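thread: overnight batch results

M.L. [08:02]
morning all. the overnight job finished for the chain we discussed friday. pasting input first so we're all looking at the same thing
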Amino acid sequence: MNLEAEIAKIVEANGASFYDTETVTEEGHTYYRIYITCEGGVNLDLCANISRELSPFLDVYPPMSGNYFLEVSSPGIERKLSKPAHFQASIGEKIKTKAFGEGKIRGTLISANDTSFVLEDSNAQQKEYQYSQVGMTRTYYEWE
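M.L. [08:03]
and the structure it wrote out:
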Protein backbone atom coordinates (compact mmCIF):
# COMPACT_ATOMS: atom_id res chain seq x y z
CA MET A 1 0.00 0.00 0.00
CA ASN A 2 1.20 3.52 -0.83
CA LEU A 3 0.48 5.50 2.34
CA GLU A 4 0.70 8.92 0.68
CA ALA A 5 -1.72 7.86 -2.06
CA GLU A 6 -4.22 6.70 0.57
CA ILE A 7 -3.80 9.94 2.54
CA ALA A 8 -4.35 11.88 -0.70
CA LYS A 9 -7.67 10.07 -1.26
CA ILE A 10 -8.94 11.12 2.16
CA VAL A 11 -7.75 14.70 1.66
CA GLU A 12 -9.35 14.91 -1.79
CA ALA A 13 -12.64 13.49 -0.49
CA ASN A 14 -12.77 16.62 1.66
CA GLY A 15 -12.33 18.99 -1.28
CA ALA A 16 -8.63 19.71 -0.76
CA SER A 17 -5.40 18.60 -2.44
CA PHE A 18 -2.62 16.65 -0.79
CA TYR A 19 0.68 18.61 -0.90
CA ASP A 20 3.26 16.70 1.15
CA THR A 21 4.15 15.14 4.50
CA GLU A 22 6.88 15.87 6.97
CA THR A 23 8.09 14.18 10.13
CA VAL A 24 9.84 16.41 12.66
CA THR A 25 10.92 16.22 16.28
CA GLU A 26 10.49 19.40 18.29
CA GLU A 27 11.13 19.71 22.02
CA GLY A 28 11.17 15.93 22.41
CA HIS A 29 7.87 15.36 20.59
CA THR A 30 7.47 13.77 17.15
CA TYR A 31 5.03 15.36 14.71
CA TYR A 32 3.69 13.81 11.52
CA ARG A 33 2.56 16.77 9.42
CA ILE A 34 0.28 16.51 6.43
CA TYR A 35 0.20 19.58 4.24
CA ILE A 36 -2.87 20.35 2.15
CA THR A 37 -3.89 23.04 -0.31
CA CYS A 38 -7.33 24.16 -1.34
CA GLU A 39 -8.68 26.58 -3.90
CA GLY A 40 -9.78 29.59 -1.90
CA GLY A 41 -7.39 28.72 0.93
CA VAL A 42 -7.08 26.30 3.82
CA ASN A 43 -8.98 27.04 7.03
CA LEU A 44 -9.03 25.52 10.50
CA ASP A 45 -12.33 23.68 9.98
CA LEU A 46 -11.00 21.95 6.86
CA CYS A 47 -7.82 20.89 8.68
CA ALA A 48 -9.85 19.60 11.65
CA ASN A 49 -12.21 17.59 9.43
CA ILE A 50 -9.35 15.98 7.52
CA SER A 51 -7.48 15.27 10.76
CA ARG A 52 -10.57 13.54 12.22
CA GLU A 53 -10.81 11.31 9.14
CA LEU A 54 -7.09 10.58 8.94
CA SER A 55 -6.62 9.74 12.60
CA PRO A 56 -8.40 6.33 12.63
CA PHE A 57 -6.81 5.43 9.27
CA LEU A 58 -3.33 6.20 10.64
CA ASP A 59 -4.13 4.19 13.78
CA VAL A 60 -4.46 1.15 11.51
CA TYR A 61 -1.65 2.12 9.11
CA PRO A 62 0.80 4.14 11.22
CA PRO A 63 3.25 6.30 9.27
CA MET A 64 6.04 5.47 11.76
CA SER A 65 6.73 3.43 14.85
CA GLY A 66 6.31 5.04 18.23
CA ASN A 67 4.14 7.89 19.43
CA TYR A 68 3.56 11.00 17.35
CA PHE A 69 1.19 13.94 17.05
CA LEU A 70 -0.79 14.36 13.82
CA GLU A 71 -1.00 17.85 12.35
CA VAL A 72 -2.87 18.88 9.20
CA SER A 73 -2.13 22.33 7.82
CA SER A 74 -1.37 24.50 4.83
CA PRO A 75 2.23 24.44 3.60
CA GLY A 76 2.18 28.24 3.96
CA ILE A 77 3.03 31.13 1.68
CA GLU A 78 6.74 30.31 1.91
CA ARG A 79 6.72 26.58 1.26
CA LYS A 80 9.20 23.89 0.33
CA LEU A 81 9.20 22.69 -3.29
CA SER A 82 10.38 19.09 -3.42
CA LYS A 83 8.38 17.46 -6.22
CA PRO A 84 7.91 18.45 -9.87
CA ALA A 85 4.19 18.98 -9.13
CA HIS A 86 5.14 21.55 -6.46
CA PHE A 87 7.20 23.50 -9.01
CA GLN A 88 4.46 23.26 -11.64
CA ALA A 89 1.88 24.60 -9.17
CA SER A 90 4.18 27.52 -8.25
CA ILE A 91 4.82 28.96 -11.73
CA GLY A 92 4.89 32.75 -11.53
CA GLU A 93 6.04 32.80 -7.90
CA LYS A 94 9.40 33.87 -6.53
CA ILE A 95 11.66 31.03 -5.44
CA LYS A 96 15.06 30.67 -3.83
CA THR A 97 17.39 27.71 -4.00
CA LYS A 98 21.02 26.73 -4.00
CA ALA A 99 22.40 25.52 -7.32
CA PHE A 100 25.36 23.18 -7.02
CA GLY A 101 28.42 25.05 -8.26
CA GLU A 102 26.61 28.42 -8.36
CA GLY A 103 25.53 29.07 -4.80
CA LYS A 104 22.30 30.80 -3.78
CA ILE A 105 19.95 31.87 -6.54
CA ARG A 106 16.63 33.70 -6.52
CA GLY A 107 14.14 34.53 -9.20
CA THR A 108 10.72 34.00 -10.65
CA LEU A 109 9.71 30.49 -11.63
CA ILE A 110 8.83 30.70 -15.34
CA SER A 111 8.12 27.06 -16.20
CA ALA A 112 8.55 23.54 -14.86
CA ASN A 113 8.22 19.99 -16.14
CA ASP A 114 9.02 16.53 -14.79
CA THR A 115 12.81 16.97 -14.97
CA SER A 116 13.64 20.69 -14.81
CA PHE A 117 12.47 24.25 -14.24
CA VAL A 118 13.27 27.68 -15.69
CA LEU A 119 14.13 30.59 -13.41
CA GLU A 120 14.20 34.25 -14.42
CA ASP A 121 16.55 36.46 -12.38
CA SER A 122 16.20 40.17 -11.59
CA ASN A 123 17.99 41.03 -14.86
CA ALA A 124 15.34 39.16 -16.90
CA GLN A 125 17.88 36.42 -17.69
CA GLN A 126 16.36 32.95 -17.86
CA LYS A 127 18.18 29.74 -17.01
CA GLU A 128 17.04 26.14 -16.90
CA TYR A 129 17.98 23.92 -13.95
CA GLN A 130 17.59 20.18 -13.59
CA TYR A 131 16.04 19.24 -10.24
CA SER A 132 19.18 17.21 -9.55
CA GLN A 133 21.27 20.43 -9.87
CA VAL A 134 19.64 22.20 -6.92
CA GLY A 135 19.29 21.71 -3.20
CA MET A 136 16.36 22.68 -1.03
CA THR A 137 14.04 25.08 -2.85
CA ARG A 138 11.38 27.31 -1.32
CA THR A 139 8.94 29.93 -2.48
CA TYR A 140 9.41 33.28 -0.83
CA TYR A 141 7.40 36.41 -0.38
CA GLU A 142 8.90 39.89 -0.42
CA TRP A 143 7.40 41.60 2.60
CA GLU A 144 7.07 45.35 2.18
